[in-house]
Amino acid sequence: MTRKYILKVIIIVIAAAFSAMPSAADDNGKTRKDCIYRLTLNDKKGTRHRLDKPQTFLSKRAIERRKRQNIQVDSTDLPVSERYLKLLRKSGLKVVGTSRWHNTVLVLVPDSGVDNSLKAIEGVKDCRLVWQMPDSLIPEENPKGLHVTFNKWDSLETSHYGATEEQTKLLNGHTLHNAGYRGKGMTIAVLDGGFLNTDLIPALRNIRLAGEHDFVFHRTLTKSDECGNANNTRPAIYRNADHGTKVLSVMAANVPQVFVGTAPEASFWLLRCEDIQTEMPIEEDYWTMAAEFADSAGVDIINSSVGYSEFDNHCGDHTYKEMDGKTAFISQSASMLADKGIVMVCSAGNLGMGPWKKIGFPADAENVIAVGALTPKLQNAAFSSVGPTQDGRIKPDVMAIGAPANVISGRGTIIQSMGTSFASPIVCGLVACLWQSRQDLTAHQIIEMVRKCGNNRNNPDNIFGYGIPDFSIYLF
Q1: Are 302 and 337 in contact (CB under 8 A)?
Q2: Are strands 301-304 and 267-272 parallel, antiparallel or unpaired?
Q3: Cα separations (Å) of 210 from 10, 64, 269, 287?
Q4: What distance in Å separates the CA atoms of residue 69 and residue 404, rounded to the nearest whole number?
Q5: How far is it, in rounded angstroms, from Cα 350 to Cα 334?
Q6: Under a CB-based contact definition with an 8 Å cutoff, are residues 207 and 247 in contact?
Q7: pLDDT tens per residue across all 476 residues of the chain
Q8: How many CB atoms within 10 Å of residue 17?
Q9: What is the pTM of this model?
């Protein structure tokens, strides 16, 4: 059977499946909803890329990072085969995204219930529904009134760090900074859900920005931006949600006596991978795409202050038995990072007071630093998720201030926010400074160093983990 004939049969199968679906307004009153499926492919046959020529799919910085840590490029690094992508497009499918690590493709279809038709396509091993258009979407109302200057009472002339003094000095981050290690030369990728006004807030506008990218296919913009301009041309990541803004500020801001982050001289990639208006399994694909992008761009460290356990309509909810770092799609991705030469720091989760209580995904991943939240009295925050993992590993790994932490909001004001989301970047920034001081070490070694400098390292548990890290001990 010729390839041309096979392709013709595939197109007929897909077309027939779609034509059999109800229209947007059929006799039964059923409304058709766009869906996205994750297709797992059998192989990477037909790719034009080669393992001995990684420069065609990895940046120079990514290749150098691997060489420095004696890491070999392997088959997971090869992009998805262009041959299969071409085949999918000729079958009438819109390709939304790909994962080279998992050899998967996201495709948009007009409705659900086409599993068998998709599996019939050449090269497709499996498929899973990961996103469906919800019945309604309510545009998010973002805060108005951007502050272009700080309030005069925000300045603490007696402290270089200003509002961040307590959360930085608790981990002896100031000692690293005083020794000249402030993150220079290190690159951090921030995986989050939106960086509202990061391009306008003076304290963040001058950060060392390596770039930004939006991985969320279903773009859902606000009714208007913070200045009331409905048709603003600024990137969507700067117009939606300020969770990422707050996270970034903890590391990147550099306003002496007002607000100084834990890695004020590092460079930052801002990667949006969280759909703020839905919670569906596809967000694990978005996260994976962002992590792969970060890898190929040559980042050293990832901060991830997003996590998952339950989805809308309970479609694809995770279970405790999956919490082994090897089962959930997102955790599989995160567990690969250290072997690619990247340190990932992530929030443990804020589910301690709910029925779940345990860490979220990907905090269960292997060889990552999951961070829990402390109160100012150095007690564990009641909401901070606990461990262990299903296979018995200690979680969280370390603790930092997060109940509350001082952050800069999307309005440009200094506020207090609760969550392991903000404990994580406090640690992440200092990991960058530590690695700057010991650039000969691997990602695995840096992760172990952070655990071993915790004040609970001799008796780690599943509430405090290895405790509060003291980043100064490696300077002496």
Answers
A1: yes
A2: unpaired
A3: 42, 17, 5, 19
A4: 37
A5: 19
A6: no
A7: 343 333 333 343 444 444 433 334 444 445 567 899 999 999 999 899 999 999 999 999 999 999 999 999 999 999 999 999 999 999 889 999 999 999 999 999 988 778 888 999 999 999 999 998 887 666 665 666 788 777 766 777 678 999 999 999 999 999 999 999 999 999 999 999 999 999 999 999 899 999 999 999 865 444 444 444 444 688 889 998 999 999 999 999 999 999 999 999 999 999 999 998 889 999 999 999 999 999 999 999 999 999 999 998 888 899 999 999 999 999 999 999 999 999 999 999 999 999 999 999 999 999 999 999 999 999 999 999 999 999 999 999 999 999 999 999 999 999 999 999 999 999 999 999 999 999 999 999 999 999 999 999 999 999 999 999 999 999 87
A8: 19
A9: 0.91
Strands of 13-109, DSSP E: 35-41, 94-99, 104-109
339 neighbors 293 (Cβ within 8 angstroms): no
Length of the chain in residues, anyone? Answer: 476
Cβ count near 148 (within 10 Å): 9
How does DSSP assign 81-125, residue by residue?
PHHHHHHHHHTTPEEEEEETTTTEEEEEESSS--HHHHHTSTTEE
